[in-house]
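Supplementary notes for students who missed Thursday's class. We covered one full example, reproduced here. Read the sequence, then the structure, then the short commentary at the end.
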Amino acid sequence: MKAISTLLLCLGVAFRPLDAFTVQPRTASVRSSAKTYVVSSDVSTQRGVGALTHMHRPPSTLNAITADLDTVALVAGQENYGFAIVALGEAIWSFSQAPSFSHAKVLVPAIVAAGILGAVSGPMITSGDAGSVQLGLEIATGVAALLGASYVARLVAPYSPSPKEAVFAGLFIAIAGFFSFSQNLIVDGFVTLPSLPSLPLPEMPLGLGEDIDTSI
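Structure (token representation):
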């Protein structure tokens, strides 16, 4: 019996150190690392999708914005160049009615306005870029206002070598150009007007027919 117990004790001692040299199964660690990798990949994928969603708009939205800018560039660009041609034509016609050195001052506002409209605001409006279109419309609006002021000054002048009917027509076109350019700024969302606070309105009781005599 002592020999058997001694043998069993030796076998137990002999097999215990083998645990230290046994390769432990790495299934749990591999699974945990796989889970970590999958989670991290999912998070990175979600972040990437979110970033792409914020960076890139849907094609329909981009097409609508591009179409709106193209329409504004086409319509407002034609108005801009047309206004420059009309203003310059009116000044040349008025000067041709009574050509003189003193009357040449009518050419100055028209030449300056036509130069700004043709070389500055025109290319900006037709560029198709939202920021450039907005700035071009603002410049055209200011030019229309200043040119209209010059027409008013010519109308109120006591003496004019040329007929004032052409000046009045130029003023009318300047006013139309001012409202057209400013309307494009507001309607197309380039400029947002401040909203007025809502005023509380008094409530008036309305009769619902309680006092109507229906016995007749």
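Commentary. DSSP finds seven helices and no strands in the chain. The two ends are 127 Å apart (CA to CA). If anything here is unclear, bring it to office hours.
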